[in-house]
# Entry
Amino acid sequence: MANVTTTAPGQAPATPRFSIRGALTAAEIDFRLFGMLLALVAILIGFNVVNEGTFLRPTNMTTLAVQGAGVAVLATGMVLVIVARNIDLSVGSLVGFIAMSYALLMTDWLPNILGMGDDFPFRWLIALAIGVGLGAVFGAVQGFIIAYIGVPSFVVTLGGLLSIRGAVWVLSQGAAVSGLDPTFQLFGGSAQGSIGGTLTWAVAIVGSLAIIGLIVYNRRQRRRFGFPVRPMWAEVTIAAVGCLAVIGLAAFANGNYWPPGAATRYAQEHGITEPAGGLKIAVGLPWPVVILIGVTVVMTFLATRRRFGRYVYAYGGNPEAAELAGINTRWTVVKIYILMGILCAISAAIAAARLNGATLDVGQSYELYVIAAAVVGGTSFAGGIGTVPGAVLGAFVMQSLAYGLAYSGVNSSEQNIVAGIVLIVAVAFDAYNRRRGGGS
Amino acid sequence: MAVTESAPLAEMRHIKVAFGGVHAVDDVSLDLHAGEVIGLVGGNGAGKSTLMKALSGARPPDSGEIRIEGKRVTIANPRDAKLYNIECIYQTLALADNIDAPGNVFLGRELTTMWGSMDDGAMEDATRKVMGRLNPNFKRFAQAVKSLSGGQRQAVAIARAVHFNARILIMDEPTAALGPAETAQVRDLIRQLKTEGIGIFLISHDIHDVFDLSDRISVMYHGRIVDTIKKTDTTADDVLGMIILGKKPEQVTQKELAELQLPGQSPAPNLAS
# Structure
């Protein structure tokens, strides 16, 4: 997708033979990721133009990000599942099951069985811990059947999709449950479920420092061993673009204010006299987005810096070689599914909090969106290829399309037609690019 | 030949491996001394690779015993074999194509920092050093090995064995995929490793390679060893006869010899496949 554009942002042609591809190669930037970022920006700008500039507003973008966060969280794990030549169709049902568990825990089980009433401290954390435990157990069981008994993952997780969804019904006896702990509701990312202006700036500063720190650390490491390093202009450009992007996003998120009603209530409760034109309280980053950022960082770290991730990719690239290298490949597969289960618990927390409860169909069809996100994000079913940030971008490409089309007044069945076509076109484009030797 | 008086580096006694009802390796005994190269030859399906997989842990034997420097050991998987410094370069190379050269050299034995994360710098450094010995022109340390040439991939597979100080090295067809220059490089390497006291099992289709590099030659036929013989005590024709007929030269009848010679010429060297 990189060759769609003709100018790189902030890059005047330095030499007569300057090419974007050359510059990207010198800077060791991932083509595929860069292309996807451009596609995402193009989609957002496209919808903005179609909607005469009303689309690209902080409120819309915040809503879009919150809606996409649940699927994006799962996509970070689905990448590893698919990289290791497996699939997980049960994620949607597991999200539904854990979301229902959260709702029942806080409305029924914690107060009535364990005697933890409304004022019991850290109820939200206890519920979350139980949900994470449930996810890990479900993941471990499915992973064990796949890795040690040898049932194909498609079959095991298809069974999981059916039976776990059935278990949701059994759990709630067919009823929707509502009324979560107020703290737990913050996971949903309403105006109150956001970290606010100051913390958003803090996150941006920490993020910028992390970018610079990482670049400096990598350069030092390569210097230490006398390896060739990136050209200085590339390092500085990457650092500058990265920091600007982070700070820009923070500023954008802080351009979103509390709804007037909520702000007035807040002013009255805290004895603040409202200025003319209403009190402006910056919403900042919603919690689901903060959680997604955290999950993405952790999963990227696991995938690229830890032995676990190396083994996942090695197994996906050549299962026999991984086995001969002495890697415990079966246990590696089980660990992937445990991780996927934990991510289901996180995604379920966001979904349940947004609903302030759980219905029977929470997470319905998530597996399809999550797999689509991973695949649009450059994950290959042949195994061994795919990145965590790519999958997150893929999730947002799909979510932007869905949200943008809805915003432009396209109904949901027509949205699905577009989403399906985009999925196929994205993968076809990728396959074409790979054959030409452009990617990988 | 640097055979010493001490216990052999590796001894395999009465090794049996069966696949279903087929005895791929049937009661084979073989030993290897430090600084020795044993050429393992035989037709397709003779059991050479299976015998070596019993030693490398890729396919543990059904019965029989393995001794390393006189001590009886159990090798149940590749990890066990590596504990005894047994390294194997498989015919398929067993590389993860989507991972770079340092990642492949250290696959399963990654160097880590004090926080348990992979130390990519240290791994690349070590890989640069060992590749400098094997293939000095190699520069593509950050590329997935998929994009490397056959010789470069072979070098990566060999680097893996060399870096971890193999005492016993199994090379399954190390030159099959290589051009003449690269083959010469691998031959030089084998001679160099031999002088360092490493014991090497060399499986090869190329009878010239075998005669050039080996101290002793073991001929396998239908899962059994026909004979293990010093290179200086035999000829290429005798070895070829053993490979094809599965009998020692003195057991071969005139009739069999006549059939062997039927096409008119003496057996071509590359029949030893």
Observations:
- The mean pLDDT of chain A is 90.
